[in-house]
Amino acid sequence: MSISAAPQKPTQTPTEISYPHGLKEFPAPGETIEISPGIHWLRMPLPYSLDHINLYLIEDGDGWVIVDTGVNTSKVRDLWEQHFAGVMGGRPVTKVIVTHLHPDHVGLAGWLCRRFGVELWMSRTDYLMCCNLVLDTGTEAPEEGVRFYREAGFNDAQIETYRRRFGGFGRDVSTMPQSFRRLVGGQQLEIGGRTWQTVEGRGHAPEHMCLWCPDAAVLLSGDQVLPRISSNISVHPTEPQADPLSDWLESCARIRDQLPADTLVGPAHNEPFYGLKVRLQDLIDEHETDLGKLEELIGEPKRANEVFGALFRRPITDDLVHMATGESLAHLNCLIERGLARRFMGDDGVARYERVSHAQATAAE
């Protein structure tokens, strides 16, 4: 069943976030809401603390394009079966498009592609990284990863948790297709008689592909921009000195300047909303504020796990420490890249981060 509810478009440039379908209103299991003619919003459950993901169906002539897929669980597959027989009316899938590599988005891509005999459309970097991460399933945690988290301040119990959870990525991902169609930023796709354009984001994922339809004034944003939560921006053991936060901030500013203010955003989490430019600027400002607080905090040397208070409003419990450490390192590495901080090793084998004074920064130049 699909509920058609054309959103009320803002009559003026939005100055705040608004939810045309209501706040905390979403499709029931097995149902969809048509957020714009031919664009359907459905929701699938997730077995995580963030308990849902929004997926989208785009009418494509006699078939459908699927945008993002949900995780590989029997519950989600059963819900897809309801959609195949329900709103999709037995019509075939013509493409499976995945915004980025995380399991809640790519998890059932292989299953869907094989079921309908269609290609997976995805950015090259995210496709290859996803395939690589799936290969970790069932293997032992590498020593490089153990060293990475030791240097970040993990204790023995936290290291053991990392070892135990390593390789879990592939458990939520069905067997990936062995070929794909590459998406790049600025690419145009014809879907249902309208032109859609890919809009690239970086930082949350290496090559995150949003989908924008100028004619419909709709952006399917994946995780690049969400209305009430900020996407996790983390450093991982595979690239310890990476600076994903700078990539993400640049992406947010570019998308803010590129897309119209009256764009309806279909995010991967929370509800469709207006106020894209407002939200992107808020996200940029929030992270810049956090960077300022972090720079102040490391006036005295701090370990990565000693700076959580500058970045997170809630207490970081053991189940969140992995995520919080990755995000803290992303902010610390951003300060290093800006010449505002330095990293050095303590006698205990744990890295410290310290603010660089203006005089030190000038001397380094």
Q: Could you outline the blueprint of secondary structure elements for this entry?
A:
Layout: E1 2-4, E2 32-36, E3 39-45, E4 52-60, E5 63-67, H1 74-85, E6 93-97, H2 103-106, H3 109-116, E7 120-123, H4 124-134, H5 143-151, H6 156-165, E8 181-183, E9 188-191, E10 194-201, E11 208-213, E12 218-222, H7 244-258, E13 264-267, H8 276-297, H9 308-311, H10 321-337, E14 341-345, E15 351-355, H11 358-364
Helix pairs in contact: 7-8, 8-10
Average of per-residue pLDDT values: 94
Read across the widest sheet, the strand sequence of neighbours is 1-2-3-4-5-6-7-8
How many strands, which pairing sense, and closed or not: the largest β-sheet? 8 strands, mixed
Count, helices: 11
Q: Give the DSSP E fraction (strand runs of 2 or more residues).
A: 15-25%
Task: Please state the overall shape, judged from the principal axes of the Cα atoms.
Answer: globular
CATH class of the largest domain: Alpha Beta
What is the CATH architecture descriptor of the largest domain? 4-Layer Sandwich
Low-confidence stretches: none
* End-to-end C-alpha gap: 63 Å
Query: What is the CATH superfamily of the largest domain?
Result: Ribonuclease Z/Hydroxyacylglutathione hydrolase-like
CATH topology of the largest domain: Metallo-beta-lactamase, Chain A
What level of helicity do the residues show? 25-40%
User: What kind of oligomer do you see?
Assistant: single chain
Protein name: Metallo-beta-lactamase family protein
Pfam families: B_lactamase-like_C, Lactamase_B
